[in-house]
Amino acid sequence: MVLTGKQKRYLRGLGSLEPVTVQIGKGGVTPTVIQQLDETLEARELVKVRVLKNCLEEKEDIARRLAEGTGAELVQMIGHNLLFYRPAQKPQIQLPG
């Protein structure tokens, strides 16, 4: 799935209102974190992830591993926040064409 610029802008607008749902700390990206993000994506489609300051991994590596592990698309990376999108089995978010 590849999002267009227009779709990413739309999702970033929605994401600004989203609370942080998943946090990554000192342990970094673990199978448990990937599973938690996967389940949250299925329920919500758009998920904000915060990388805590005590995390030793690079944000870019974290974003890549989470996207690969869940099949989600990285929509935005600002500071310590990452925004991921993956359509659910029954999509709730209608993306613009």
TrEMBL record:
What GO molecular function terms would the record report?
RNA binding
Question: Which Pfam family, any one, appears in the UniProt record?
Answer: CRS1_YhbY
Mind listing the UniProt keywords for this protein, alphabetically?
Answer: RNA-binding
InterPro entries in the record: RNA-binding_CRM (IPR001890), RNA-binding_domain (IPR051925), RNA-binding_YhbY (IPR017924), YhbY-like_sf (IPR035920)
- Domain of life from the UniProt record: Bacteria
Domain CRM stretches? 1-97
Q: Which PANTHER family match?
A: RNA-BINDING PROTEIN YHBY
What this protein is called in its record is RNA-binding protein
